[in-house]
Description:
This protein is an alpha+beta fold and about 70 residues long.
Amino acid sequence: xxxxxxxxxxxxxxxxxxxxxxxxxxxxxxxxxxxxxxxxxxxxxxxxxxxxxxxxxxxxxxxxxxxxx
Length: 69
């Protein structure tokens, strides 16, 4: 088994439901175009407010994946 080399990219997921759902949306989309996803790291959580109510969650995550040989 050789050494693994990883790459990190930053993505933003959104959801009208929750911050956790925004993370899931981001990871689901990332997994459809990035192979060998290994981990994620939440960098920033924010959202928009409309008339005192949370309208949308936005979560910035870094995802790490193993690079192909």
